[in-house]
């Protein structure tokens, strides 16, 4: 049986992803829940960063790299200062999938697959809100929670330590 093409290719490749990100960030900047997180952000740089990340993540690359620590670090100030949480992630992903539709992706199967591939990243925002959003009471609790959450996330993403 031939191997299925990576999702990025089945969505229409980089041209569709670029258009989708343009539409997506237009919607994000109009969204009352998400827009405050992007105030003062150089959007051209963010779009380029997201394009690179999503090209990789919507290919088979997501299976080989643990993005947990990088994503936590990149969003840390928003967890600490603006109470970023999984609620915001959910809205962001919903707007992204809606933007794919607006850019011509009509297959519900592809839209569902995109959502399913992005869904495990939600746990990073749960962890970030818990670790850096002030919900953990003591340093000892924070360290225990941090290690437990990251181990669980790595298992969820299929990035547990390989034997042998």
Automatic annotation (TrEMBL):
InterPro entries, A to Z: Globin-like_sf, Globin/Proto, Hemoglobin_trunc
GO molecular-function terms, A-Z: heme binding; metal ion binding; oxygen binding
Stretch list, region Disordered: 137-164
Domain of life: Eukaryota
Listed Basic and acidic residues bias regions: 138-147
Presence of keyword Transferase: no
UniProt-listed CDD domains: TrHb1_N
Segments of skewed composition (Low complexity): 155-164
Protein keywords: Heme, Iron, Metal-binding, Transport
Pfam families from the UniProt entry: Bac_globin
Protein name in UniProt: Uncharacterized protein
Organism, as annotated: Phaeodactylum tricornutum (strain CCAP 1055/1)
